Amino acid sequence: MRANVDLGYATVALLGPRRLTQRLRGTYQRAAAGVVEFGRPDDLSEESLRGVGFAVVAFPAADANSQSNADADAGWHRALAAAGAALPVAVERVAETTSGSITLVGGGPGDPGLITAAGLDALAHADVIFADRLAPEVTHELAPGVRVVPVGKRPGHHPVAQSEIQAQMIQAALSGETVVRLKGGDPFVFGRGGEELVACREAGVDVHVIPGITSAVAVPEHAGIPVTFRELSRSFTVVSGHDPLGERELEHLAGLSRSGATIVLLMGVATLPQTVSGLTRHGLAGDTPLAVLEKGFSPDERNTFTTLATAVVDTAGCASPAVTVIGPVVDALTRGTRTGPTGPGSGSVARS
Ligand code: SAH
After folding, report:
1. Which of 189, 213, 237 is the last residue of a domain?
2. pTM (2 d.p.)
3. Alpha carbon nearest to ligand 1 atom 22, residue
4. 219 CB under 6 A from ligand 1?
5. pLDDT of residue 335 exceeding 80
6. Which of 154, 178, 182, 192 is deepest in the core (most CB within 10 A)?
């Protein structure tokens, strides 16, 4: 890669397979006013090349002099000519091997003691850590000089866009760094870990996943709620309440719950009034136990126990992050010991 190019105010078009152009992107972003990538000659047109002042064809370095590279080069030149673009064109031979890697680490539900041994080991060997807001604070295990980049949403700060996080991690790995992406809970439970894994693979980056303990199970457990319990619940459904649930989802969940399933809602505080009224509309009994478990495993954790009928009033002051549990398991371990709510406004709040 050319390290010292200065392309001033030109936009550069990188032409070639995405796994190769992605490797060049960072270098050209630093050198030029803008970068656009094209994976196929057919994508070139007068319109799509508007503003482009320079083009780079990317080849795999391994078979630099092969016939297929010569054919691809000719194909790109033909397509540029057909698009009416008379641009300077350079060729880059892109090495596809790198010692860098990305490990998606599940950090568990917030207590640094609840990250796995494999996760700690990955952290100890990282050059750079991209940490989510809900990831646990793990600092003493880190290598000296490690960079920690906070990328999660924090109050008063703009979150870093998902595409930007992915681009930064991939760039770091391609430059040879050992990257850890530290997430709350498990990377594959509403953690966007799946899409990050796909992006890493597409970029040709060596990528691994280390599971974590999900808050969907651990936060209820910590509050004394088993998500399954013999003869009370033999399944549990984990649902995102980030967006209001649709009518069919509510009907389905109410049916599941009536047949004994536990419902666990993540990101469901803001939409709880809609969820509660929807489940009620679809026939879930008002005395169904419900708990909102805020900020589990932190000094500010707070558990609110109520019922479907009284939930909206009793949880009005609840805030994210919280796990909501609906079903008889909420009371499974405390029957007769907790002063259960019996009417509106009587939800019991426990701080531990
Ligand atoms: N991948 C994560 C979930 C990410 S979605 C996991 O497996 O746990 C973020 C949501 O998880 C929050 O809005 C909240 O519903 C829940 N959550 C995560 N950590 C939590 C905690 N310590 N206490 C309460 N809820 C938590």
Report:
1. 213
2. 0.73
3. 296
4. yes
5. no
6. 182
